[in-house]
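Review form for a predicted model. The reviewer records the input and the model, then writes brief findings.
Reviewer: anonymous (R2)
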Amino acid sequence: MNKPELIVTPTKVEDILPLAEAGATAVVIGEQRYGLRLAGEFNRDQMKEATALAHTKNIKVYAAMNAIFHNEKIEELYDYLRFLSEIKVDAVVFGDPAVLMTAREAAPEMKLHWNTETTATNWYTCNYWGRKGAKRAVLARELSMESIIETKENAEVEIEVQVHGMTCMFQSKRSLIGNYYEYQGKAMKIESIQDEKTMFLHDKERSNKYPIYEDANGTHIMSPNDMCIIDELSDMIDGGIDSFKIDGVLQTSEYLIEVTKKYRQAIDLCIEDREQYEDVKDQLLADIEKIQPENRPLDTGFFFKETVY
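Model under review:
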C-alpha cells in the first residue's frame, strides 16, 4: 500500500528540522511576491538555507509560485525559476499558466504541481493540466470524500489533498482593509501574516469569526473553522491518494509540530496496523482539540457534505 506524503507549511527556517523529526516528508515554502497564503515568508537566502536543511533529512521542498501574475511581473518569473532550479527545489506549485509557460524555457526539468485553489474539482481537468506538464494536481478543498476518491481513480497525475488547517473563502487583489481605513481617514500599513493574527470579521448572525489579513497579493478572508480529518484517513489511504497537506497559515510553529506528530502516527498506523488506528484515532483527534486555538473550532470541512444538483 502506498504511503502518502505528509506536506507541512513551515513558518520559518528554524521549523524545518523539528518538522522533519515530527514526521513531515515535504514542505511548501516561498515568498508572498510569488506565493499565496504562506505560513511564513522565505526570502531567497532563506529559501536556499531551508532547501539545503530539508534535503539533509530527505524532505522534499516545494516552492510556492501560485500567485496570480500580471504582465509587469512576467519577466521576474524567469529569474526566480532559474534560482529555484539552482538551489534544487523538488517542485514548483503554480496556478497561473504563465509559470508553466516560463518554466518550459527557464527550468524545463522542474516538476510542476498545479494548484488553483478552487478549480481542481474533477479528474478530467487534472489530467488536462497533466498533459500540459503538471506532475500533480492539488484538489480543491470544497470536494467531498466520494469526489476525491473518484478523481484519484481516474487521474493520470499525482493527487494532493489538504487534511488539516483553514480554507480561504475569499481573495481580492485589492487592498480592501487598507482602503477601508483610508476611507475612515486612518492609515494602515501592510504587515506580515504573523502580525495580523487578531484581525477578524465578526458575523453575529452565524456567530462566526473569519480571520482576515492583507499582504502583497491583496485581501484574504479565511474560514471560521479548521478542517481536521485525522480520524477519517482510511478511505483516502486505501484510495491511493499521493499526498496529504497540513496548512499552517496563521498557526504557531509549536502547534504545527504537534499536529504533524499526530498525523504521522495516524498515517503510519492506518497503513501498518488498521485495527490499532481505529482504536486510537478518536484520541488523536481529542489530542489536537486540546491544543487547538480557542477561536478555531475543528470540523471536517466539505469531506462529508452532500452534493446538491
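Findings: The chain has a mean pLDDT of 90.
Further findings: The first helix runs from residue 16 to 22.
Recommendation: see findings above.
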